[in-house]
Amino acid sequence: MLFSLSSLACLFLAANAVSGNIIIPAKKRYGELSGKFIHVTDFHLDPYYVEGTDVAHFCHTSKGDTKKGVAGRFGTLGSKCDSPTTLVEAAFDFMSAQAPDADFVIYTGDSVRHDRDKKLKRTKAQVLEIQRTIVNYFQKSFDKVIPVLGNNDVMKHNHIQDYDQQYNEFKATWEPYNLALGDDFEQGGFYVQEIIPKLRTINTNTLSFTKKNKLISDCDVPGSPGRNQLDWLKKSLDDTRADGSKAYILAHIPPNSKKDKHFFRDKCYNEYYSILGSYSDVIVGHFSGHFNYDQLTAVLQNKEDGTYTRVAALGAEEVPMTAEELEIYKVVGVLFNAPSIIPEHNPAIRIYTYETEGYRYPVGTILDWDQYYANLEEANQSGNLEFKLEYKASTLYNVDHFDASGIQTVFEAISLNEEIRQQYSNIRKVIGNEEAAYL
Asked: What is d(CA 314, CA 296) in angstroms, rounded to the nearest whole number?
């Protein structure tokens, strides 16, 4: 069932750091907690990107075909080109300078360039080398990095099965991260990582769920990769609950797209959201990337029959609901989708603050986040790329914590306040507004 913002109004009424040219070592001392972590996603590093080449040829070569423009120094906004090394290094410079004391970094995947250029097809060696390059960048600056697999990180875009040899290759590439990559990872590319006392990440492989993976069946098929992973996910959450701990779910591909359509196969999609709802007492955040948008999605529970559904803050279309229907739903969870480094929109990096002690809110509760962006057109003109604050979530939404009750307030604000709704529409695409009142 789909819901629109306007139709949810009744429900919710009830209730500057400058990048330099050198990566700065910024490793924090072990044992200290700052209550901050970084979320970065979708680097799509392209070592073959050449400034001044034709956008029509993926910023690789010049053939005089400039109708779509030419490649900028730090990237080419809204094009099919991937990220140049200059942009990726500027992003790491910024993270090192802005959050040297971050407790950890969550990286929701896609290190590798797309395989769009038919005259420069990716090779296995290139894919592995780009992955190692991103690992090296992280290792220069941060002690604790928790990655998940992206759909472009595998050799054949979107396609992988259980027990694929590539999982062993990822395990070797990620060895510097010192992760708990055991049998589950070798089987299906998923794992659990303890990060601080009473908080862990449950790191999924969403290639086992996506419709675009033609090698797999839906999650109602016994023994399928999706079925195996959902069983593992429930067991991991049961273990977390039994331990009295909390969990972040990390995913590359979110269940629903920027147009609020299903990314996952139908059975996988429905059960995935049912799990998110059923374990909402354990899950304190769900983080993803993939489609380059800044998007919030609320998990909803039907008060009458206990079933779960969802609503994205701005869907593709409005589906009117009666006030009576709206009254039976409550918010129980939230999915945070972060904008990307690859410049489909302006490059972006997010820094969260979270509860570390569990005094006011459960450990892991998101208290706030600062969303940073770089104005790519300005950077290409000036030759200097700066990440600036786009918005502070607590200021934009007037909320001091982002659990279910806080997200209810957020959706109420987006639903009922036209100005906030327009601001949210702008930040979804990382337009940037340095004069805005929500900094």
From this structure: 8
- Report d(CA 141, CA 91) in Å as an integer: 12
Place of tokens 């998940």: 148
How high is the pLDDT of residue 104? 98
Strands 329-337 and 295-302: antiparallel
* CATH number assigned to the domain with residue range 6-15+28-46+82-428, chosen from the 4 options 3.10.310.10, 3.30.980.10, 3.90.226.10, 3.60.21.10: 3.60.21.10
Nearest to 417 by CA among 28, 99, 12, 3: 12
For residue 158, the cross-strand partners are none
What is the tens place of the pLDDT at every residue in 310-330? 888 876 544 323 344 456 788
* Three-class HEC string of 192-206: EEEEECCEEEEECCH
Identity at 166, one-letter amino acid code: Q
Among candidates 222, 432, 219, 257, which has minimal Cα distance to 335? 257
- What is the arrangement of strands in the sheet containing 145-147, beginning at the earlier edge strand? 145-147, 104-107, 36-40, 348-354, 366-374, 387-392
Nearest to 333 by CA among 264, 259, 420, 274: 274
Tokens 């603050």 label which residue?
A: 353
385 pLDDT higher than 90: yes
Domain ranges of the chain: 6-15+28-46+82-428
* Pair 134, 67: CB distance under 8 Å: no
- Tally Cβ neighbours within 10 Å of residue 323: 10
The residue behind tokens 């400034």 is: 51
Averaged confidence pLDDT in the chain: 89
Alpha-carbon span 65 to 348, nearest angstrom: 29
> At residue 428, does pLDDT exceed 50?
yes
Token look-up 């559904």 returns 309
> For 173, phi and psi rounded to 5 degrees?
-65, -40
DSSP string, 69-94: -B--SS--TTSS--B-HHHHHHHHHH
Asked if 409 and 397 touch (Cβ cutoff 8 Å), the reply is yes
Percentage of the chain with pLDDT > 90?
Answer: 76
Give the pLDDT band (50/70/90) at residue 20: very low
